[in-house]
Amino acid sequence: MYKRAVDKRMIDNNYIKQLRIENHYSQIELSRILGFKTAEKYSRRENGIYNFKAQEIFLLAKFYGVPMESFFARRCANNEQIAAKSN
To answer: What digits encode the pLDDT tens for the residues 19-44?
Structure first.
């Protein structure tokens, strides 16, 4: 299994939080899905204090039924839009 952390600049933490809220899950519930003993570990990742690991992104994608790319695509799309506006 992959244990490397994913660069937090690549992950759209707001999208992860949005998915959790829209699907009516608590941080405690998501922390259990990811195998954490406390919700604090999940909260720190969701808030960008710690990085999500590749395996955690995989589990979230599987749990929500969305492609893993969706956790990255929004951030990349926003960066492309910002770059286009500055030119």
So the answer is: 999 999 999 999 999 999 999 999 99
